[in-house]
Specification:
It contains seven helices and 13 strands. By secondary structure, the chain is of the alpha+beta class. The strands form three sheets. Strands 6, 7, 9, 10, 11 and 13 form a six-stranded mixed β-sheet that branches. The chain has a five-stranded antiparallel β-sheet with strand order 1-2-3-5-4. The two termini are about 35 Å apart.
Length: about 325
């Protein structure tokens, strides 16, 4: 049941073009495949949607901004209907639905709503914020992550590297490989501290590295959009099959060229990549597993100069 976002867009537009307001019904097209029966629809309120059929009822636990989820009984089955409430988010919705169809392929009918809920949880932050621009801090962070991703692709190969890129998925670390994790930080020249936003960032049963990238802004360098284009060309030359996953993860961070969400015209230059071993004794970290009862979350700052003795050669 795999279908690309652009194919979904075409199907929606064909339904929309043949839509007859006077009938007051939903127009839908079922997309074939083994497992869960699902399709796309367009409503009288001019909403784009996804529909799937299951034999059991499912209670969705969360509510989502800009997305509505309905489940209705029809004959002996249940119809779960996912509707987009903000048409400006259609490019994101296309990717979300494409991913849903991919995950539903070959699965049992009764598991369909659970799979849909899992996908919505992954996309919830983007759907909540809508068309929010990247902040300057987020832009710098994305630029550095893309540079680290390129280095990882060279060392491990495109598939392993892009799958390990976990920052867009709001995981505790920016890269999660099978045998180690990496937390990436962009550092401006004037910065004397590194902000750690969670007690979980340096807490794992696997080795964790802190990678600090001093970054300079000026007339020389590349914009975020330039960097994305560089990665696209690099992936095309190494393993083009990974490009859809790369584009999907860009969407998770709010980078979407169809919506003109490509960052500013600021040009950045990374001076070096500096690795630190966050598992060494006395590394200045607060770890979630070592907190006393009653403390659930928080953030803190590490003095950059305190990291010097923990500097190591990186794993790639």
């Amino acid at each position: 049941m795999k279908i690309r976002p652009e194919e979904l867009k075409e199907k929606w537009h064909k339904i929309k073009d043949s839509f007859n307001d006077s009938k007051g019904i939903q127009w839908r097209q079922i997309i074939g495949g083994e497992g869960v029966k699902a399709g796309v629809l367009f409503t009288p309120r001019r909403e784009y949607g996804l529909i799937l059929f299951s034999s059991t009822k499912h209670q969705f636990k969360a509510k989502y901004k800009n997305i509505s989820v309905q489940q209705v009984k029809a004959d002996k089955s249940y119809q779960t209907i996912l509707l987009l409430n903000d048409e400006t988010l259609l490019p994101y919705f296309e990717i979300l639905c494409s991913q849903c169809f991919s995950e539903l392929d070959g699965k049992k009918e009764e598991d369909g709503p659970k799979i849909l809920e899992k996908q919505l949880a992954t996309w919830s932050n983007l759907l909540k914020h809508g068309r929010r621009d990247l902040t300057v801090e987020e832009e710098r962070g994305l630029f550095v992550e893309l540079e680290v991703l390129k280095k990882a692709i060279t060392f491990f190969g495109a598939s392993i590297a892009v799958n390990a890129w976990s920052g867009p998925l709001e995981k505790s670390q920016d890269f999660q490989f099978d045998s180690f994790f990496v937390e990436v930080k962009a550092k401006q020249a004037i910065s004397t501290e590194i902000v750690i936003s969670s007690f979980k960032q340096f807490d794992s049963d696997r080795p964790i590295y802190l990678l600090v990238a001093p970054i300079k802004e000026g007339e020389i360098g590349m914009t975020v959009q330039d960097k994305v284009q560089e990665l696209r060309k690099f992936l095309n030359a190494t393993d083009a099959s990974v490009l859809p996953l790369f584009e999907e993860k860009l969407s998770f961070v709010g980078y979407e060229e169809n919506l003109d969400k490509v960052g500013s015209e600021n040009k950045y230059e990374i001076q070096e990549l500096i690795w630190y071993d966050a598992n060494m004794d006395e590394f200045p970290a607060i770890r979630a597993s070592q907190l006393p009862d009653g403390i659930s979350s928080g953030c803190y700052r590490i003095l950059y100069q305190s990291l010097r003795r923990f500097r190591v050669e990186g794993p790639f």
